[in-house]
């Protein structure tokens, strides 16, 4: 019943009649593919493989974790939260009306450098509780208008910031309208610290997404000003603050590059920042922070990558050791037929 | 009684219906002629034999074979393989879609629940079509836990199907749980690694397109690595398709980034300019891939150690070539793996009683004729 059909497939049409050799056989042509006999690698998860796999992961991950942690520890960061402190004390009860008024918004802050900061030092502004990733906000822009002067009136996707006084706005949309407009001036020992604001945006944005023949027009002309006013004589490809801002951030807490300081800062130096506190984050309880940070080959200061690698590597090492103990204490001989189900509970499998 | 009321239906059809309703089991009917068509259609699985009596049975059947003896191979080899393939394929499909889909929902918590997708539309369209479908299709077509001769030698392995060992709720929920865990790992690790600081030495920070691309890369790599751990039978096809899926993702990203920003929008040159030169992209992908598949690896290692299933043991015996070294053991296990059939038991008992009666009748008849008294 069993042994006479090992090499013929089920489902073949026609008779595989070999008893009458003269009759033409209708048996389909044999091929390894159709008979599912392709050469195959059938790896087995033996104890050796299990322990080796876990050890390999821990051997690779722990050094990567250490290196990443050191890289992150090398980064020096100064963070200064200023949105409450920069409102005069007597007006702190109603910050929204302060920010919307014409009062003097200049504010001076002092930053202390704790460790040597090698140039370039990146200056960021950090906003909290600002949802640049809200769907309607992200939608509110017109890429064709930004790219090409000929599409200057393609403002359909930009509502509500599409037209002002009957004329299309260039650049239209909520993202451009809400452009961040605080400014920072740094001085060290009464000397101005230059902040390089060139090259802060992605090159592909400057070259291909923001046209050099597109000029701001009719911008921030309405009753409600959302942010910065753009210079109408500078083409969009050179308005790097706008380009950086238009790359909508992923999370409600984000930093955006403001500029670069191209000199070293020695420890215990005090930097005086004169900032213009123009941007209204008070209506939605947002926070504003000024960040100065160096970078490493891995980026900014974030210990998490290193810690995560060390955790996973350590966990794998622990698993490798546990499995070694388990295999030593309770070994199961490979291929031991006493583990087959009909041997383990005979009479009822 | 059935014959009185259902004169139009043949006896074989009625018997099949009776067995189906009476026992509640899955029935298989096999036949080769036009008179078997009713029974073939009535049975849950109909097998038609093509040949001498024509093609009517074949046209009415679910499966057709050319000889009756092929039925054994159909069930024990192909039935066994197909059950496992389909069970694994369906569980994996649930897993990968949960791992991908839930990350979208987690992101919503960070966008004020406004419905903004963190992934570009084309990523999501291609996910199930090109980027993760090919390896699982090759799993469903080519996967073999044991070779066909072992299937024929150990028909008990077929019992894994009727006992539903591979598609019970424990397994389904386990795979869904694995998908849930993977989605959490992918999302949380990426969000914290790329939180607000610069991700490159040149000081640029992460934006939504970059975070979406990074998370998607992690999903593709984790999901394809996971399937390579599920497979036990690697032909060149499976190898090729797994690598192809991962490479297709990077190739797609590269090509998509090359077309004009009118169409590619924020993905324009994202791989070449922003991600590929950033070491944190590759290190984060490696970390997330391994972190997602680690629990599964630990689970199957433990299972293999403490509760190995029949096909695991047989795979090990074959791998260590113990079937050739210890032929006695192999033959003994093969014999034990066959169960004496219980069907037709009553019929055989009746036939045996009849044959006994017949012999007794003959004996009394011959005794009586010897006595000379005709009865």
TrEMBL record, chain A:
<feature type="compositionally biased region" description="Low complexity">
    <location>
        <begin position="1"/>
        <end position="19"/>
    </location>
</feature>
<keyword id="KW-0812">Transmembrane</keyword>
<keyword id="KW-1133">Transmembrane helix</keyword>
<feature type="region of interest" description="Disordered">
    <location>
        <begin position="1"/>
        <end position="32"/>
    </location>
</feature>
<keyword id="KW-0472">Membrane</keyword>
<feature type="transmembrane region" description="Helical">
    <location>
        <begin position="49"/>
        <end position="71"/>
    </location>
</feature>
<protein>
    <recommendedName>
        <fullName>ALA-interacting subunit</fullName>
    </recommendedName>
</protein>
<feature type="transmembrane region" description="Helical">
    <location>
        <begin position="307"/>
        <end position="329"/>
    </location>
</feature>
<dbReference type="InterPro" id="IPR005045">
    <property type="entry name" value="CDC50/LEM3_fam"/>
</dbReference>
<comment type="similarity">
    <text>Belongs to the CDC50/LEM3 family.</text>
</comment>
<dbReference type="Pfam" id="PF03381">
    <property type="entry name" value="CDC50"/>
</dbReference>
From TrEMBL, chain B:
<keyword id="KW-0479">Metal-binding</keyword>
<keyword id="KW-0472">Membrane</keyword>
<keyword id="KW-0460">Magnesium</keyword>
<keyword id="KW-1133">Transmembrane helix</keyword>
<protein>
    <recommendedName>
        <fullName>P-type ATPase C-terminal domain-containing protein</fullName>
    </recommendedName>
</protein>
<feature type="transmembrane region" description="Helical">
    <location>
        <begin position="279"/>
        <end position="298"/>
    </location>
</feature>
<feature type="domain" description="P-type ATPase C-terminal">
    <location>
        <begin position="58"/>
        <end position="308"/>
    </location>
</feature>
<feature type="transmembrane region" description="Helical">
    <location>
        <begin position="207"/>
        <end position="228"/>
    </location>
</feature>
<dbReference type="InterPro" id="IPR023298">
    <property type="entry name" value="ATPase_P-typ_TM_dom_sf"/>
</dbReference>
<feature type="transmembrane region" description="Helical">
    <location>
        <begin position="240"/>
        <end position="259"/>
    </location>
</feature>
<dbReference type="InterPro" id="IPR001757">
    <property type="entry name" value="P_typ_ATPase"/>
</dbReference>
<feature type="transmembrane region" description="Helical">
    <location>
        <begin position="172"/>
        <end position="195"/>
    </location>
</feature>
<keyword id="KW-0812">Transmembrane</keyword>
<feature type="transmembrane region" description="Helical">
    <location>
        <begin position="122"/>
        <end position="142"/>
    </location>
</feature>
<dbReference type="InterPro" id="IPR023214">
    <property type="entry name" value="HAD_sf"/>
</dbReference>
<dbReference type="Pfam" id="PF16212">
    <property type="entry name" value="PhoLip_ATPase_C"/>
</dbReference>
<dbReference type="InterPro" id="IPR036412">
    <property type="entry name" value="HAD-like_sf"/>
</dbReference>
<feature type="transmembrane region" description="Helical">
    <location>
        <begin position="93"/>
        <end position="110"/>
    </location>
</feature>
<dbReference type="InterPro" id="IPR032630">
    <property type="entry name" value="P_typ_ATPase_c"/>
</dbReference>
